[in-house]
Design brief:
Keywords: Repeat, TPR repeat. The protein contains 24 helices and no strands. It has 527 residues and is mostly helical.
Length: 527
């Protein structure tokens, strides 16, 4: 029989030459197999495996799959008492077969069977001393099976497999295999996500992300994007558990990492940075740490402005909300001019029609309505009452133009505020018209929406109070009686009503009735 030196071909040898030589030798084995003269099996499956490797290099994967399959068949055929002679060769064939089959859809259950067999063989090879834990082969097998079990929805088995892989890689790390750190960090991330999403085990998920972050931090060149991602997930888990201070610490870590990189890479832009600044700013504001909130909003606004200058409108929606939130924070500090500037910039961005050209903005009308309402409030604080009325007119017109039933609820506050300012300015006719316009706009919803009925009853009461104030007692009484009827109906339907308003409304009724008896007016403070 000719020499089998071609099994040791030089890796730099031309593929075609090596493939031709291997094929020539395999033909001899095939002839012997056909004539039932195949006694020595060792070299035949080895040759098939090597040719399969070359076929894969030439992207002839189906032909390679056939070689791996036949290699396993031959080895099983000549097994002694079910014991395969060359387990390492059989493992190579089965492993290669798995790699190819895993690229084909709908073979998950077959792949699971192969994984089970691979794990069994690797365990035997470790016992025989062919493999060791340090090789990283057995954990790779468990990772494969974890992925398949996860993809088919068997999360219990997936959790068992990834936990086995983690334990093995921890052993390898303990034995000084430092190269496993990155892989182990990734496994902790995957298990943390599995525990979070599929098992809702937030505490253990946090523990896994803590391990993951520690390992990432100790790498020579940590992947900053992945590190920010892991901090972000852990922060969100803390937030879900209402451990807000821990969450803020993680958001702060993200901000520190991103800002450091942002200074070095001028074009760097990360959702992690903007999201974390927004979360931290909102938290500071909720805790009354207004100055710290303003600092974060300011940094966030400046970053997004620069991105917009570079035609990156990804965070345009966040910019609008940040301007609104910073404006509200300025209001908390009575920095009215600064607040007015933020609201004005927000509305200017909206008026530039950026939202029509960019799908980045959502809820544009909600933000606009809130900004207009806030701007009217700051103008009122600055005693620029006529300007406040104009802003409220714009807001009311916007809501009416939308003409959606659920939006009409938003007419109540601007209508009430506008009427109240007009009363303060002594423009009573305009104030009454504002009340009447509100009632006319929403009256059709009264029968199907008790909240709408509540708004109308309040407005009718305010209108009655104004009518009483200007000595129109007949219409004031009609309105107050109507409001009283609505109030009691709402209470019967478990709708909360301000009891002071009910009492004030009743006073109007009682006073007017007394006036009709005494034919003279009593002075009455209705506010």
């Amino acid at each position: 029989m000719r020499s089998l030196s071609y099994l040791e071909y030089d890796e730099h040898q031309y593929f075609d030459e090596a493939l031709s030589e291997l094929t020539e030798g395999i033909k001899l084995f095939e002839k012997m197999e056909a004539e039932n003269r195949l006694e020595e099996v060792n070299f035949y499956p080895i040759a098939l495996n090597k040719r399969a490797d070359l076929l894969i290099e030439k992207q002839l994967v189906m032909e390679a799959m056939q070689d791996f399959s036949h290699s396993m068949y031959v080895q099983k055929k000549f097994a002694i008492n079910g014991e395969i002679k060359n387990k390492l060769c059989y493992f190579s064939a089965l492993d290669g077969y798995f790699e190819i089959l895993s690229q084909i859809e709908n073979y998950e259950h077959v792949l699971l069977d192969i994984c089970n067999e691979l794990i069994y063989i690797v365990d035997q090879l470790i016992e025989d001393g062919e493999f060791s834990i340090e090789d990283g082969i057995i954990d790779k097998m468990y990772i494969r099976r974890y992925i398949i079990n996860r993809d088919v929805g068997d999360f219990e088995r997936a959790l068992i497999d990834i936990s086995a892989a983690i334990n093995i890689q921890k052993l390898r790390l303990d034995k000084g295999v430092l190269s496993v750190k990155s892989s182990l960090a990734e496994l902790f991330r995957y298990r943390g996500k599995l525990l979070h999403i599929e098992f809702r085990d937030l505490e253990h998920a946090i523990n896994d992300f803590t391990e993951n972050i520690y390992l990432e931090r100790t790498l020579d060149e940590p992947n900053l994007s992945e590190l920010c991602y892991d901090y972000r997930i852990r922060a969100n888990l803390y937030w879900e558990l209402e451990q807000y201070e821990n969450a803020i610490q993680d958001y702060t870590e993200i901000i520190t990492i991103c800002l450091d990189y942002y200074q070095k890479e001028k074009e760097f832009n990360s959702i992690f940075l903007t999201e974390s600044l927004n979360r931290r700013a909102n938290y500071y504001k909720s805790q009354g740490r207004i100055k710290e909130a303003i600092n974060d909003y300011s940094l966030l606004i400046n970053i997004i402005r620069k991105n917009i200058e570079n035609n990156d409108f990804t965070d345009l929606n966040l910019l609008l909300k940040s301007l609104l939130n910073r404006g509200n924070s300025f209001m908390d500090l009575e920095r009215y001019q600064d607040a007015f500037g933020d609201y004005s910039e927000l509305l200017e961005l909206v008026s530039d029609n950026l939202y029509e050209e960019n799908e980045a903005i959502d809820d544009i009308f909600d933000v606009t309505i809130r900004a207009l309402l806030a701007q009217s409030h700051v103008l009122e604080k600055m005693q620029r009452l006529p300007e406040a009325v104009k802003v409220l007119d714009e807001l009311i017109e916007l809501v009416l133009d939308i003409n959606e039933k659920d939006r009409l609820k938003e007419l109540f506050i601007p209508s009430f505020k506008k009427a109240a300012i007009l009363e303060e300015l002594g423009e009573y006719a305009e104030a009454l018209a504002t009340y009447n316009n509100f009632i006319e706009a929403v009256i059709d919803q009264v029968t199907e929406d008790l909240d709408c009925l509540k708004d109308i009853s309040y407005i009718i009461h305010y209108r009655s109070a104004l009518l009483y104030h200007i000595d129109d007692f007949e219409n004031a009484l009609k309105g107050a009686l109507r409001a009283d009827k609505y109030f009691h109906y709402l209470l019967e339907n478990d709708i909360h009503i301000d009891m002071e308003m009910i009492e004030a409304n009743q006073e109007i009724i009682d006073n007017i009735k007394d006036l009709s008896k005494k034919t003279k007016k009593k002075k009455f403070l209705f506010w």
